[in-house]
Amino acid sequence: MRKILALLCAAALVPACRTTGSRVRETSEVVALVVRTEPAGAKVRVEKVDREWTAPCDVADPAIRRGRLDVTVSLEGHETVTRRVSWDGEVPARLELRLVPKTGTIVVQGAAPGARVLLLRGPAGAIGFWSENEETVKAAVAAKKEGEGRESMTVAHRVTADAAGTARLTYVPSTGTLHLLVTHPGGADFVKTDVKAEVKGTLTITVPAAPKPAVEAAPAVAAAPLAKLTVKAAGDRVRVTAGGKVVADVPTHPDESVKLTVPREKVLVEFLDAKTGAVTGSVELVPEAEAAVAPAPGDPERIGKLQLVHPRFGIFVKLEPGQEIAIGDVVTLHREGREVVRAKVVRVCAGDAGYPAGAAMLSAEAAAGRKGDEARRAKP
Questions:
Q1: CATH assignment of 2-98?
Q2: CA 220/CA 215 separation, integer angstroms
Q3: What is the DSSP letter of 225?
Q4: Phi, psi dihedral angles at 260 (to 5 degrees)
Q5: Fold matches, 2-98 and 302-377
Q6: Quick check: 96 and 102 in contact, CB under 8 A?
Q7: SS3 state at 111
Q8: Is the Cβ–Cβ distance between 89 and 101 less than 8 Å?
Q9: Domain boundaries, the chain
Q10: Is 28 in a helix, a strand, or coil?
């Protein structure tokens, strides 16, 4: 009798085990893991499962069993992450990750101390808009139509070369085309297009030294005579260049008059921002013996007339022959014998075909003037 009861009990247990096993197979399709990543689009793999998901995703597969799950999350250009999570077989485990971008490093050597080093993204033709050299910017403007060029270029990274001419740029690699631009006032730009460092690697770029001009032997001559130059600056620094060589580079203070000794030849006076080294204004000066300037008109206070009032290009006075004007000088504009407005000179331009004696660019206050207004030197 006992044997019969035991067999009956065993027979009753067998279908129960099969049902339990069947229920496990059915419920194994439930979600075991919820994955969310920033940024989205990462590939998700669970160890020992021959399948891949794309985040954000809900991971479910018959091969996944409750317990510890080793999960790998990868995204191009970012660090791969491996995490271990636990699943109880019922409530989905949750994994939220912020992926860290992989970075590359570009080291620039041989640049001029204080040079601006930029990593730009966009077409190579628009690089000139970021130059500190006036002629390069003019060429870029002339080569582009209105509204083109600058808007299609973005700055991925910007840094200033140290005293040794070295700059380090750490950036996140991207699919866009990158260009390296090294620019410095008064020097030629260095441009390298399609730049890309290896991920987690270092790319070293050396800026070639400017070629030295060939020097021909010449008979000894007496040193060029020197001249005294007085510059009144609005502050920061003043740099004087003669024959392509810097002959003076001194700090100044607001409204300070600086006396300099320079060669008696044509010189370029530049006003620089002390922090960035950018040129904020410049003027060319020519010795009297070479200038052949016509005598000043009878009225010494009259310097010329207002020739251009433009919201984009600025406000310019066409100077009369023999007149001298400097940055910071105050000019009054007169119309029908009455003073209209006062403004300061912010830039002095050399002469050309349209302005034989040069031009003076005025501050924004002069926008109240009109073309043809008489420009006079303000009385102290």
A1: 2.60.40
A2: 13
A3: P
A4: -125, 150
A5: no
A6: no
A7: coil
A8: no
A9: 2-98, 104-206, 226-280, 302-377
A10: coil
β-strand pairing of 279-285 with 267-272: antiparallel
DSSP letter for 141, please: H
Q: 99 is written with which tokens?
A: 């992926």
104-206, what's its fold? Immunoglobulin-like (2.60.40)
Q: Specify whether domain 302-377 bears CATH 3.20.20.
A: no
Q: pLDDT by residue (tens digit) across 96-127? A: 999 888 777 888 898 888 888 888 877 766 67
pLDDT confidence tier of residue 298, bands split at 50, 70 and 90: very low
The answer to whether residues 174 and 196 touch, using CB atoms and an 8 Å cutoff, is no
Mark residue 14 as left, alpha or beta (left: phi above 0; alpha: psi -120 to 50; beta: remaining).
Answer: alpha
Query: What is the dihedral angle through the alpha carbons of 24, 28, 29, 35, rounded to the nearest 10 degrees?
Result: 160
- Long-range contacts at 340-346 (CB < 8 A, ≥ 24 apart): 340/368, 340/369, 340/373, 341/365, 341/366, 341/368, 341/369, 342/378, 343/315, 343/369, 346/281
The pLDDT tens digits for 350-362 are: 877 778 888 888 8
8 Å CB contact between 194 and 217: no
Tokens of 63: 């091969």
